[in-house]
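PT: before anyone asks, these are the final sequences, not the draft ones from last week. 445 residues across everything. Please model them as a single complex and drop the result in this thread when it's through.
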Amino acid sequence: MTTLTRSRESGPHAAPSSSTALTGTRRLLRFGLRRDRVRIPAWALSIGGLIAYFGAAIPAVYPDAAAMQTRAEIVRDPSGAFMTGPGYGLDDYTPGVMIANEVLGMIAVAVALMSILLVVRHTRAEEEAGRVDLVRAGAVGRRAPLTAALVLLLVANLAIAAVLLAAVLLAALLVNDLALPDSAAIAAGAAVVGLVLGSLAAVTAQLSEHARTASGTAGGLLGLAYVLRGVGDAAQPGGSTLSWMSPIGWAQQTRAFVDLRWWPLLVGVGVAALLLTASFGLVGHRDVGAGLLPARRGRPAASRDCSAPRV
Amino acid sequence: MPGDVNLWPKLTGGEVIDLLASLHGRLDRARKAELLERFDLDPTKRTRTCSKGNRHKVALVAALAGDVELLVLDEPTSGLDPLMELTFQQCITEAASGIANLVVTPPTLEELFVHHYDGAPARAGAASTSGGAR
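LR: through. Structure below.
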């Protein structure tokens, strides 16, 4: 490659004095909102719709208290607990308790998936496609794309929490089990899981050159989080230490509709803050388009299996 | 401007130009319209359906329509047909006589000889002043 340069005296334009690593964040955030203006509401309404439907279905599936109690005995069993939650309030299984114990885990996974895909789509995928080269050619700071993506993550999870709150309230209303703080804890719990896994994706996006690897790694850890709380919840009623190793566990440990406590969500907020800080540190230690982990090289020549397939 | 231009598939060429130019600084609407005319580019076409040459033109117009101090163009004429290449040469001469400092990597040898840029050819990386761990 040959490079030719043509330099002239600097024009009348003085360098902007206020240029920082965050310059351009606001514009990028507006652009991100514009790109996801359909996607985020679609996720929120789908997940919210699922909860509302669940609320509407409960009276049909479990017509009386005896039927509810039969269900409680199923999820009390270790195999039932593995698939659902820690099992608070099983002795008086109301529809609200059921939503907290059985539905929260599922919607938390959905919100986390949305968050992982969102963060990777706006960070590593843009770099892999080479679009960040065009963006960063402008007056855009080194950390601006990541910052814009993380603010977008926050906006998306707040939107989801609002829709989920409305959905849980609607579901609770349908079954006469209305409780505002407990409904809010469920919505906030799902959003906190989204924030933690989204922040985790911000870290994996710094490690790999490829968007698929970044979202795959974060998605794998999400699966691990579900299994950890499953094993922990199966081990003993109310969950054990393993349940507390999982972000989904923190959301379920608020004991919504039974004996509400908020502090487990603070654990999630704290971990999300740590991961965010880590991703901010890491983004300053690499080139645009490069990952912190080197891309693996392959074989220089084909192996026998590849070059001479046996028929 | 990178040698391999990838754009947001759902946006139109005109939207991409406005977005990138706004990140570069002020967008000169009259200049944008003039450049679209000269490069014969339809700004209402989504970039998903654009050819390589047309995606290149979008990035070029975005780069030239902004009010910038430094232009770095990596193989800007690759994908352009000969007539458009001529247009590009005119535009770039104008830009250079304006305020822009220019770094261009021409894709072909003849372009290197035919068009007389000032300055010496440099080996890859030698002219680079920042980054570049690779």
